[in-house]
Each structure stands twice: as structure tokens, then as C-alpha cells.
Design brief:
Layout: H1 19-27, E1 36-40, H2 43-46, H3 59-64, H4 82-95, E2 100-104, H5 107-110, H6 120-135, E3 139-145, H7 151-155, H8 162-179, E4 185-190, H9 192-202, H10 212-236, E5 244-249, E6 254-256, H11 261-284, H12 289-294, H13 308-312, E7 319-322, E8 327-330, E9 357-359, H14 375-387, E10 393-398, H15 415-433, E11 438-444, E12 463-465, E13 472-474, H16 476-487
Parallel strand pairs: 1-2, 1-11, 2-3, 3-4, 4-5, 5-7, 6-8, 7-10, 10-11
Antiparallel strand pairs: 8-9, 12-13
Family: Belongs to the glycosyl hydrolase 1 family.
Enzyme class: hydrolase
GO molecular function: beta-glucosidase activity
Length: about 500
């Protein structure tokens, strides 16, 4: 195992207002005039059509069809049928005034075995989607990997195996060749922490494995995949095109419960496992030494080869931050419920730190049980603005699930979600005011969808979906968000636009 010296991360910022001008606007309560107002989705959560046009099973197909792995045995077999309704959904985005849409490509739809040539029909679907977006003036942002590894690659060992990173680079090149003539914005990975530690540590996500060393191996190979994938994208796009490449991390705003030394040490340990295990290699070309020390009883990290961390440290044009709630931790076990916010499991997603206790936040919570605390988003934006100077930031996911029901006219009023959005977009404004170069915000999510192991019981969408009829009905929050995007100013938190009738 060899670490490399800290490497500076370079970037080519997107065109737009310089941070000083943006800060001045933010002090007036206004977003930059070219701020990206978008929404995000993921392929397995919305597309359906899991066995059409050459698509083969991903780990989420297998996992969701395994009894007991998802609420009510729900699967993404149909989801919200976006594969057949994409034109309708793009028209809806245009009506809501979105300037950008972040979607993910299904790896097993494009490269069914995880290796070899592309499936033309799969690529054609994404070509049509991109063309429809561009025709409506909506800027596409393509996520290469949002957790749906082809099952054949998992059968060969999955992310704990180094070969998977090389297969990802091959896949990235296929997408770059197909879409790079019309797509400018790419993100390599979405929330690699979840892929590694929920998929291979706690087992609450696909593929459902529960080995702490495999979780650490997976994290490393996801870092390597990011670097190799970024290189492959830049090499594969058509001549004359320059892709802007990001990665979407879900860093945790980790807070010690008290100032006690054991709580501060718990915060440091979780920060290493939640944040620095990825930001170290990707932003600085080196793993944090305390991570090695903390996990020495599990592994010697011999799977890290010379030059790997340098490969992971590719120049970023943008850095995506996904945020939902902070983590409050203390050292040592305490009486009472333990909840890290990532689902119940007999196995910890925190290698060598399963004795750290996570605490429920006080105050309002979403339907997921997550605390509502916009200050965590502010803290992360300011933190990563300092850690990656010169690299513009995007909020690539932020949103909330709330229970709601239609009124007598079939309309969906969701004042809780509006307050949530107002608070978190206000935190983005505060971060811009204080010097963070934040270029855009992607609401999670455009549509209600298959919410992973929670099935269809948790609704994040600004647009309600009737899963029986597939009818889309924008909630009040969708119209609130559309007004914010149109004006560049946040409507009041208690503003209640009339939603559509279902």
C-alpha cells in the first residue's frame, strides 16, 4: 500500500458570474442569473421496462426480487414507466420551468453484460431523451452510475474486485461516445458511500452483502472507477467537445453530541469513513492516515496499488454535493434506540466504528425519520468550497419525503415540502453570500418513485405519481419551485400556489 502526496485539483469553472458578483446578489436575496435550477432522478427508480430492448438484470433487480429486502416486496419492474413516458416527463419539466435535468444511465441497459459492445437500443433511448431535453431548452446532466451494477459483474465479485473499476471505464467510454456530442455535464458516480457501505457493509442496499472489509475494498475501487471513468470520458467524446465532469458525493455533516473527547473522536472516525475516504483520494490524491489506523484491525489496505489515489484525483470541473440531514454522534454505546438514518440492519455500515452511537435530531423530521436542518447543507458547501478551491459546486440532490393525500379536488398541497425547500435553498444563498461558488441546485426528486429498500411508501416527488394509473400531478411544491426558478428569488415559505388537479 502506498499513498501519494497531496495533489492540487484543477478545474475549468463553468461560464457564469464570478463568485464576488454572486455573493453581492445573494446579499440581496437573489440567486445568480445563470444559476441552474433542476431536478434529479435515477434509472432504476423511474424507468421500469427492466427486460426490454436488451436490458439485463442489475443488482437492484436481484435484490428487490429477494424476499424481505424491500418494503412490501416492491420492485422497480415498472416503477413510474419513464422508459415509455419520457417525452411526457420532459414536457412536464418544461412546463415547470426547469433549466436542467440530472438523470442516470442504466449500465445494464447500455452494456448488458457489463463488458463488451454497447446495446444500441439502450443508447437510443438516452439519445432520444437528451434530444427531447435540448429541444425544450433543458440542459441534461448525465450520471453514469447510480447504484445499478450489472448482475454479471456482481457475480464476478462486484465492487470489492479491482476489475469492476476497469469495466466501469469501458462503460464510461461507451456513454461518452454516444452522448458526448450533445451532453456537456457528466457526473461519474452518485453517492459512492452508499454503494460501498450500504451495499457491502450493512447490506440494506443491493447487493446486500455484509462484510466490512469488502465495504472498504468497494470504496477504494469506486474511487479508482471515478478516476478511470473521468479519463475515459474525456478521451471518448467527439473531437471539439469538452465535457465538464463532476462526482456527486453525499458527505455527512458530522457533529459530536457533546464536547467530550470520546464524542469528538467519534465525530473524527465517522468523518473519515463518511467523507474523507472519498474526498481524500478524489480531491487530494491521498487517503487519510487516521482511516488506515482506525481500520488496521480489519485490513492492511494492500488492495491499494501504487498510483491508485493519484488516478482517483482527476481534475474536476464541478463537485456535486448531496445532502439530506446531519449526523449526530457520540462515542460508546448508550441506552435507547440507535439510528444512523440508513435503515435497520444487524450489521453496521461503519467498519471498525460500529460502537459509535448515532442520535436522532430534535425537532421536525421527514417521513424518512431524518431531521430537518438546513445548516448542515450550509456547512458542507462552505467546507467543500474551502477543500476544493476553484471547483464550482452543485447541490446535486436535496429534498424530502412527506406523507400527503389529495384534497377533494384531487390536488396535492405539501406545505411541509415547501418549507423544507425554502430553508435549504436559503442555506444555499447564505453559502453563496459567504463565498461558496455554488452554481446550481437539483431537487430530489422530480417524480415519486421506487425509493430503494423503502419501496413505494416514501414519496420525494415534487410531482405526485399514481402508481396504478401512472398519472402525474404536480404538487404545490412543484409550482413553488417553478416560481423560484423563474424569478431567481425564493417565494415566501408560507406561499401556497395552487397545485394541479389529479
Amino acid at each position: 500500500m502506498t499513498t501519494v502526496p497531496t495533489a492540487a485539483t484543477s478545474a475549468t469553472p463553468t461560464a457564469g458570474e464570478v463568485p464576488g458578483e454572486a455573493a453581492a446578489l445573494a446579499r440581496q436575496g437573489r440567486f445568480p442569473t445563470d444559476f441552474l435550477w433542476g431536478a434529479a432522478t435515477a434509472s432504476y427508480q423511474i424507468e421500469g421496462a427492466v427486460a426490454e430492448d436488451g436490458r439485463t438484470p442489475s443488482i437492484w433487480d436481484t435484490f428487490s426480487h429477494t424476499p424481505g429486502k424491500t418494503e412490501n416486496g416492491d420492485t422497480g419492474d415498472t416503477a413510474v414507466d419513464h422508459y415509455h413516458r419520457s417525452a411526457e416527463d420532459v414536457a412536464l419539466m418544461a412546463r415547470l420551468g426547469l433549466g436542467t435535468y440530472r438523470f442516470s444511465v442504466s449500465w445494464s441497459r447500455v452494456q448488458p453484460t457489463g463488458r463488451g459492445p454497447a446495446e444500441r437500443r439502450g443508447l437510443d433511448f438516452y439519445r432520444r431523451l437528451v434530444d427531447d431535453l435540448l429541444a425544450r431548452g433543458i440542459r441534461p446532466m448525465v450520471t453514469l452510475y447510480h447504484w445499478d451494477l450489472p448482475q454479471e459483474l456482481e457475480d464476478a465479485g462486484g465492487w470489492p474486485e479491482r476489475e469492476t473499476a476497469h469495466r466501469f471505464a469501458e462503460y464510461a467510454a461507451l456513454v461518452g461516445e454516444a452522448l458526448g456530442d450533445r451532453v456537456e455535464l457528466f457526473t461519474t458516480l452518485n453517492e459512492p458511500w452508499c454503494s460501498a457501505f450500504l451495499g457491502y457493509g450493512s447490506g440494506v442496499h443491493a447487493p446486500g452483502r455484509t462484510d466490512p472489509v469488502d465495504a472498504l475494498r468497494a470504496a477504494h475501487h469506486l474511487n479508482l472507477a471515478h478516476g478511470l471513468g473521468a479519463q475515459a470520458l474525456r478521451a471518448s467524446v467527439p473531437a471539439g467537445r469538452t465535457p465538464k465532469i463532476a462526482v456527486s458525493l453525499n458527505p455527512s455533516a458530522v457533529r459530536a453530541r457533546t464536547a467530550a473527547p470520546e464524542d469528538e473522536d467519534a465525530r473524527r472516525r465517522i468523518d473519515a469513513l463518511a467523507n474523507r475516504v472519498f474526498s481524500g483520494p478524489m480531491l487530494r490524491g491521498a487517503y487519510p492516515e487516521d482511516l488506515f489506523a482506525d481500520t488496521a484491525g480489519l485490513t492492511d489496505w494492500s488492495f491499494v496499488q501504487d498510483g491508485d489515489a493519484r488516478t482517483a484525483c482527476q481534475p474536476l470541473d464541478l463537485l456535486g454535493i448531496n445532502y439530506y440531514a446531519p449526523a449526530i454522534v457520540s462515542g460508546g454505546r448508550v441506552d435507547g434506540p440507535r439510528d444512523d438514518g440508513h435503515g435497520a440492519s444487524a450489521h453496521s455500515p461503519w467498519p471498525a466504528a460500529d460502537d459509535v452511537t448515532f442520535h436522532q435530531a430534535e425537532g421536525e423530521r421527514t417521513a424518512m425519520g431524518w431531521g430537518v436542518d438546513p445548516t448542515g447543507l450550509y456547512d458542507l458547501l462552505v467546507k467543500y468550497a474551502a477543500e476544493a478551491p476553484g471547483v464550482p459546486l452543485l447541490v446535486t440532490e436535496n429534498g424530502a419525503a412527506y406523507p400527503d393525500a389529495p384534497d377533494a379536488q384531487g390536488r396535492f398541497h405539501d406545505p411541509d415540502r415547501i418549507r423544507y425547500l425554502h430553508g435549504h435553498l436559503s442555506a444555499v444563498l447564505d453559502a453563496i453570500r459567504d463565498g461558496a461558488d455554488v452554481r446550481g441546485y437539483y431537487l430530489w426528486s422530480l417524480l415519486d418513485n421506487f425509493e430503494w429498500s423503502y419501496g413505494y411508501g416514501k414519496r420525494f416527488g415534487a410531482v405526485h405519481v399514481d402508481y396504478d394509473t401512472q398519472v402525474r400531478t404536480p404538487r404545490s411544491s412543484a409550482h413553488w419551485y417553478a416560481r423560484a426558478a423563474r424569478d431567481g428569488v425564493l417565494p415566501p415559505a408560507d406561499f401556497r400556489p395552487e397545485p394541479d388537479a389529479g
